Each structure stands twice: as C-alpha cells, then as structure tokens.
C-alpha cells in the first residue's frame, strides 16, 4: 500500500475568523450592455477597485471548454503535472506561490498569453497533443482580453480622457506583458472539525498589472478588503466576471482608482477552479499618472517602467505593499 503523506496543516496559514462568512451584497454589478455603464464603472473603481460584470459578451462555450481542459489537467497525477513546473515564473506550481516563501492551499498553471508561445514543455502531459488545450486557451484569452479592453475604454470615457484607448492600447500592444493563471483550490474536509477556522488558499495581495479579469466556478472563497480594512466574501457566480483594478491602473489614475487587496480561502467540501487574465503593459512602458487626470496635482508616485515594477514585485512577499516603494514621500 502506498501512503501519501498529507502536508502538515501548520505549514499553511490557518485563520480564526470571529464572524461566520456571510456574503456581501454591495459589490457593484455592471451591465456592459447598458448605456450608463461608464459612470458606474468609474464609481466602482474609485470605491472598491473591484466589480462584477454581466452581459459581458464572452461566449459560454469558450468558458466551459477551458474549464474542462483545466479540470482535466488538475486531475492528472502530480508527477505528470510537475512536468510542467516549476513556475519560473511560467509553469505549474503546487502550494508554493512566487519565489519568496509564500504558500497556499492551491495548485496552479501560469501561462503566457501570446498565441505563439511554445507549449513543448506541456506536450507530454497532454498525450502529445496539446492542441485542444491551446485552442481553448487562445479562444478564451482573446475573448476576455477584448472584454477587458472594452472596460478600459469605457473607463477612459467615464474619466473624460482621450484617446479612449490610453489604457487598452497597453493590453493590445504586441509586446504587452500579460499573463494567464489557472488555479485549483482542492477542498480541505478537515476544516469542518476546526470550528470556525479558515485555511488560506491564496494569501492577501494586490495585482501588479493594469486590470485582472477573473472567472471561477460556483465555489466560494474569494474575499476582498474594503477601504475600512474589513474583509468581505464575494458570492461566486460562474456566469459573470470579476474585475480587479491593479497597481498600474492605480498609478496611471494618480490614486483615483485603488488596486484591490484580495485573497482566497479554501473550501471544506468543494473544489474551486478559477481562471484569471492579468492585463499588463509592455516591459518598457513608463507607468505614470496621465497628465489629463492631474489637474495641477503632483504625481503621488516616482516614475518607473513596468519592467522595474515587476522586478521589484518578484523580490516581494505576496502581502507586501508593493506600491509603497514607489510612492513619493
Ligand atoms: C499576483 C498576481 C498574479 O497572480 C501574479 C502573481 C505572482 C506569481 O504568482 O508568480 C506574484 C504575485 C502576483 C505578486 C508578487 C510576487 C509575484 C507572486 C509573488 C510573491 C502572476 C503576478 O503577476 O503577481
């Protein structure tokens, strides 16, 4: 008999929550088909740095195909999945997040978003035929990127800035440094006997990029931090997308939009599968407040390129305030 050792739970962050998790009803829901969406989008980015979008135009078929491929991948034996690792930063990772000692109850695949990417390292995993996975990935990424760009253009309109592609052109650029992430949070049944304790799936952090587009299955776990520091649980919705403002958009709007701190808690009974597109600028792009948004204000940030920010991010721990290093004192 082969006994597979379960890692000691002490390795992971267990949190005692005083309140039972209740879902927060106040998350902005933006209907992209409505003409008033641009002002609601601006308000949501100012108040929460987070919102949900409906009538998003991403075909359901693209979502379910990629989800099926993701589940197929995560169901493979660990030794097979590890052939696609370690995440350096692209590749398969298991429980360890980033290069600086962060851990979580999660396994994941980090992938580039350019369709020309060479999937050679994944070939053996997909029985020598990675085409199905790649097609599903490319269809999905193109559709969420399009939707992300539409949101960024509506935001530019809502802020009265021109041209309306000031943000979206960075994602559309052929050198855009965007990434894609598939996460699998396995259930942790022992949590049921740990009265009120929670296990961290993915620790609190903000996303460094411009915008993140997240879709998950119907399993709860995502929490966001409100301006007052309180954590609230986001009701899952597999038919909608959740959008995070990233640190770069916070800087480009000189702090008008706030990047949202978020985290994921493991579920005791159900697997959570999420797929996230992180829309980033080209490495050489200067990240600085747009002059038209400053109106005589000074920039709150020192000037830096996305390359410099990313380099600094990879030296940080997940929960660090990465923008702190770039704030003017
Ligand atoms: C957070 C957002 C994205 O998932 C990510 C993460 C990256 C990683 O997992 O490799 C980082 C993290 C994220 C921020 C700080 C660094 C880098 C782990 C970490 C400790 C892919 C990204 O771009 O930044």
From TrEMBL:
<feature type="domain" description="Fe2OG dioxygenase">
    <location>
        <begin position="175"/>
        <end position="281"/>
    </location>
</feature>
<comment type="function">
    <text>Catalyzes the 2-beta-hydroxylation of several biologically active gibberellins, leading to the homeostatic regulation of their endogenous level. Catabolism of gibberellins (GAs) plays a central role in plant development. Converts GA9/GA20 to GA51/GA29 and GA4/GA1 to GA34/GA8.</text>
</comment>
<dbReference type="InterPro" id="IPR044861">
    <property type="entry name" value="IPNS-like_FE2OG_OXY"/>
</dbReference>
<keyword id="KW-0560">Oxidoreductase</keyword>
<keyword id="KW-0408">Iron</keyword>
<dbReference type="Pfam" id="PF14226">
    <property type="entry name" value="DIOX_N"/>
</dbReference>
<protein>
    <recommendedName>
        <fullName>gibberellin 2beta-dioxygenase</fullName>
        <ecNumber>1.14.11.13</ecNumber>
    </recommendedName>
</protein>
<comment type="pathway">
    <text>Plant hormone biosynthesis; gibberellin biosynthesis.</text>
</comment>
<dbReference type="Pfam" id="PF03171">
    <property type="entry name" value="2OG-FeII_Oxy"/>
</dbReference>
<comment type="pathway">
    <text>Hormone biosynthesis.</text>
</comment>
<dbReference type="InterPro" id="IPR027443">
    <property type="entry name" value="IPNS-like_sf"/>
</dbReference>
<dbReference type="InterPro" id="IPR005123">
    <property type="entry name" value="Oxoglu/Fe-dep_dioxygenase_dom"/>
</dbReference>
<keyword id="KW-0223">Dioxygenase</keyword>
<dbReference type="InterPro" id="IPR026992">
    <property type="entry name" value="DIOX_N"/>
</dbReference>
<dbReference type="InterPro" id="IPR050231">
    <property type="entry name" value="Iron_ascorbate_oxido_reductase"/>
</dbReference>
<keyword id="KW-0479">Metal-binding</keyword>
<dbReference type="GO" id="GO:0046872">
    <property type="term" value="F:metal ion binding"/>
</dbReference>
<comment type="similarity">
    <text>Belongs to the iron/ascorbate-dependent oxidoreductase family. GA2OX subfamily.</text>
</comment>
<dbReference type="GO" id="GO:0045543">
    <property type="term" value="F:gibberellin 2-beta-dioxygenase activity"/>
</dbReference>
């Amino acid at each position: 008999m082969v006994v597979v050792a379960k890692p000691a739970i002490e390795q992971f962050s267990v949190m005692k929550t005083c309140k039972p998790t209740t879902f927060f009803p106040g998350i902005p829901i933006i209907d992209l088909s409505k003409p008033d969406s641009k002002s609601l989008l601006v308000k949501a980015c100012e108040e929460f740095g987070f919102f949900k979008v409906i009538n998003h135009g991403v075909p359901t078929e693209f979502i379910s195909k990629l989800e099926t491929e993701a589940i197929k991948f995560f169901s493979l034996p660990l030794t097979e999945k590890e052939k696609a690792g370690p995440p350096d930063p692209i590749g398969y990772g298991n429980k360890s997040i980033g290069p600086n000692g962060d851990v979580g109850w999660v396994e994941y695949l980090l992938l580039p978003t350019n369709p020309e990417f060479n999937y050679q390292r994944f070939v053996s995993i997909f029985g020598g035929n990675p085409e199905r996975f790649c097609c599903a990935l490319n269809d999905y990424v193109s559709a969420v990127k399009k939707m992300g760009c539409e949101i960024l253009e509506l935001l530019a309109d809502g802020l009265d800035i021109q041209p309306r592609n000031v943000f979206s052109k960075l994602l559309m650029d052929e050198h855009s440094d965007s990434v894609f992430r598939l996460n699998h949070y396995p259930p942790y049944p022992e949590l049921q006997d740990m009265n009120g304790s929670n296990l961290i799936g993915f620790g609190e952090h903000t996303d460094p990029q411009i915008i993140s587009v997240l879709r998950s299955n119907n399993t709860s776990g995502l929490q966001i931090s409100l301006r007052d520091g309180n954590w609230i649980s986001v009701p899952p919705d597999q038919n909608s997308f959740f959008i995070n403002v990233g640190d770069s958009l916070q800087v480009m709007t000189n702090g008008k939009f706030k990047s949202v701190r978020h985290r994921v808690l493991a579920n005791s009974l159900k697997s959570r599968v999420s797929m996230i597109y992180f829309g980033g600028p080209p490495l050489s792009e200067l990240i600085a407040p747009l002059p038209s948004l400053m109106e005589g204000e000074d920039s709150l940030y020192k000037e830096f390129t996305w390359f410099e920010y990313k380099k600094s991010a990879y030296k940080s721990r997940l929960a660090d305030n990465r923008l702190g290093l770039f704030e003017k004192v």
